[in-house]
Amino acid sequence: KLINAKDVWGEQFDRSASNEKAMLYNLEMSPDIPDLYVSLANYYKEKREYDKAIPVYTRSIVLMNDAALKSKVYARVGDTYNLQKLYPEAIEAYKLSLKNSSNNERELFDVYFNLGIIYYKQNKINDALASFQNVLKYVYDKENSYRLLINMAELYLKSGNYINAMKCADKAYSIKKANTAVYLLAYSKYKNSEYE
User: Fold this and answer.
1) Are 75 and 97 in contact (CB under 8 A)?
2) Is this model's pTM higher than 0.90 or not?
3) How far apart are CA 14 and CA 143, in angstroms?
């Protein structure tokens, strides 16, 4: 099973009804401020009221002029669809996020990573690998590098590319001496020896 990316844009919210009422009141008083819609949509997402979150995110996008902010909100829409297992919609939202991207490496990492996970869930191994190849450009720390390499090793194993699976598992092991990396390295070596 692949490791999911963290939702770096998510925020914690007071889940009380009074907080929701306050946000709705603010929107009523200032209906042209996109940030108010984003806050309300984040609130709904946090409460797992995804059917409410999506249209509110969409409204905020319509009001925005800044492509970089639109990119962030499209990514949140993608995350929300992904949580509902609505993968075609999530893919479309993530692609819109990339189209509007400001080239923020952390955001690009998360969007491409999440696309890779979705493609994997749909058994689109080549698309998942292509997405993870894009992620390689934007890895910003060792933990994320490890997660990416482990996922790529899994995908290469699944596709029968044992040499690349070994390379990814070996690189992951050099970053973090964890059982998952050891297992993937050993298993890919074993599978490769069967076909030599």
Assistant:
1) yes
2) no
3) 30
Closest CA to 23 of 42, 2, 6, 48: 42
Structure tokens at 101: 């991207």
Confirm if 175 and 145 have CB atoms less than 8 A apart. Answer: yes
Tell me the pLDDT of the chain (196 aa) as tens digits.
Answer: 444 333 334 444 444 556 888 888 888 888 899 998 999 999 999 999 999 999 999 999 999 999 999 999 999 999 999 999 999 999 999 999 999 988 888 889 999 999 999 999 999 999 999 999 999 888 888 999 999 999 999 999 999 999 999 999 999 999 999 898 898 989 898 888 876 5
| CA nearest neighbour of 53 among 69, 76, 34 | 76
SS3 label, residue 142: helix
Tokens coding 35: 């940030």
